[in-house]
């Protein structure tokens, strides 16, 4: 070819023209309740989750089985280029979440002499419940793009918690994207294509693959187990808890920055488990550490998983049945001023550390209305007193402001921030 085709121009078409050309692909939309009302009705793991709505999908959406999470650093110094990228990403996300390809021309269409518009590894695969959720880190609000005055107060850096062993290279970042799906190849495909579209404007800072969700976000889901073998997230916020979601999850218009209305704040923590040490610990001690039995997941002294926890009950020796340093006591809303979190964590195994020990644990993710009043006090309590700390180590941390949902094909991720 005599002229080289601009990839950015092609994807620019995807951001503007694809909104119309792809409207039929993403015509299913959430109603006034956003993804809350519709995600629960996803009938099969192959189905598509609506992309448009009041809130971003992937928060109260019933938790899928697989995760690919990525944190990007913005490399362009031009605000207009960053806004253009978010438009292109939104168009691609709208397509991919409905089972389509990332670009208007797909993996095998378009001009043969140009790179394909999609990487192609998801060709023939269904949508698999794919959701893509975006968030903005505190570092995006420095002096590069004139956004400092628009940083929400709730996006303040998290404090250093006792016992933290954080690695800066796998913490923080300007923009995050959470891809959840029932098929790992679908999730990886989505992140791969967003990174490809962003070439020259963003670079991957760190990423994490996850499997085996460790929380339920709907009462229709059974409670899963973490790699320590215990049920995780029994008392999690659920999409059916409409009143609590309004109070504890979604940012309200009067909370500060209006561009965050309908959004939520995401905290990520990569928590490595000392698997080999845990596996040599007695069952009795394991159950006392968690404050639940390992089989049914019932609170100690109770029979069923969802039985109310009795924090007053004493054993024959006059000691609390649920110990003062038990995880379930310290994390419970009644111990933290009524603070709830909506957790969407995943197990991870990243091979071994070279000494024959598994590099494995929990990639913790929690959404909330204000981390200063929710995650921070809960984690401070856990970091200071939790007997589980002997077996875990926090190695990564992130905090991101996830704006409200994309309303329609003329909207895009973060538009209210950049307008």
TrEMBL record:
GO MF assignments: ferrochelatase activity; heme binding; metal ion binding; peroxidase activity
Role: Involved in the recovery of exogenous heme iron. Extracts iron from heme while preserving the protoporphyrin ring intact.
Entry-linked InterPro entries: Dimeric_a/b-barrel, Dyp_perox_C, Dyp_perox_N, Dyp_peroxidase, EfeB/EfeN, TAT_signal
Domain Dyp-type peroxidase C-terminal per the UniProt entry, residue ranges: 223-407
Cofactor note: Binds 1 heme b (iron(II)-protoporphyrin IX) group non-covalently per subunit.
Taxonomy, superkingdom: Bacteria
Localisation: Cell envelope
Name the UniProt record assigns to this protein: Deferrochelatase
CC cofactor: heme b
Keywords: Heme, Iron, Lyase, Metal-binding, Oxidoreductase, Peroxidase, Signal
Enzyme Commission number(s) from the entry: 1.11.1.-
Keyword Translocase included in the entry's annotation: no
A Pfam family: Dyp_perox_N
Catalyzed reactions: heme b + 2 H(+) = protoporphyrin IX + Fe(2+)
Transmembrane parts of this sequence: none
PANTHER family per record: DEFERROCHELATASE (PTHR30521:SF4), DEFERROCHELATASE/PEROXIDASE (PTHR30521)
């Amino acid at each position: 070819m005599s002229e080289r085709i601009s990839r950015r121009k092609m994807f620019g078409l995807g951001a503007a023209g694809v909104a119309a050309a792809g409207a039929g692909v993403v015509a299913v939309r959430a109603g006034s309740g956003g993804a809350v009302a519709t995600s629960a009705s996803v009938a099969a793991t192959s189905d598509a989750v609506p992309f448009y709505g009041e809130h971003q999908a992937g928060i109260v959406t019933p938790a899928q089985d697989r995760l690919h999470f990525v944190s990007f650093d913005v490399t362009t110094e031009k605000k207009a280029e960053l806004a253009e990228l978010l438009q292109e990403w939104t168009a691609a996300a709208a397509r991919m979440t409905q089972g389509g390809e990332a670009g208007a021309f797909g993996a095998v269409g378009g001009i043969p002499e140009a790179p394909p518009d999609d990487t192609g590894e998801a060709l023939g695969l269904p949508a698999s419940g794919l959701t893509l959720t975006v968030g903005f880190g505190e570092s995006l609000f420095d002096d590069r793009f004139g956004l400092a005055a628009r940083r929400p107060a709730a996006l303040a850096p998290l404090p250093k918690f006792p016992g933290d062993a954080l690695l800066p290279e796998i913490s923080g970042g300007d923009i995050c994207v959470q891809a959840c799906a029932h098929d790992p190849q679908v999730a990886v495909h989505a992140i791969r294509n967003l990174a490809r579209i962003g070439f020259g404007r963003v670079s991957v800072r760190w990423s994490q693959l996850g499997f085996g969700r460790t929380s339920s976000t709907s009462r229709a889901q059974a409670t899963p187990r973490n790699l320590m073998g215990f049920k995780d997230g029994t008392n999690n916020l659920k999409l059916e808890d409409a009143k609590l979601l309004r109070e504890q999850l979604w940012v309200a218009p009067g909370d500060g920055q209006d561009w965050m209305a309908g959004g939520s704040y995401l905290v990520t923590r990569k928590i490595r488990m000392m698997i080999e040490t845990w596996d040599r610990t007695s069952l009795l001690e394991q159950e006392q550490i968690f404050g639940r039995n390992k089989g049914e997941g019932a609170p100690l002294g109770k029979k069923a998983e969802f039985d109310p926890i009795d924090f007053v009950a004493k054993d024959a020796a006059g000691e609390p049945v649920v110990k003062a340093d038990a995880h379930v006591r310290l994390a419970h809303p009644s111990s933290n001023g009524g603070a709830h979190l909506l957790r969407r964590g995943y197990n991870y195994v990243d091979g071994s550390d070279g000494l024959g020990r598994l590099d494995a644990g929990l990639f913790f993710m929690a959404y909330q209305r204000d981390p200063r009043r929710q995650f921070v006090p809960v984690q401070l309590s856990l970091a200071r007193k939790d007997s589980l700390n002997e077996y875990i180590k926090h190695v990564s941390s992130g905090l991101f402001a996830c704006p409200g949902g994309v309303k329609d094909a003329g909207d895009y991720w973060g538009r209210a921030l950049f307008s």
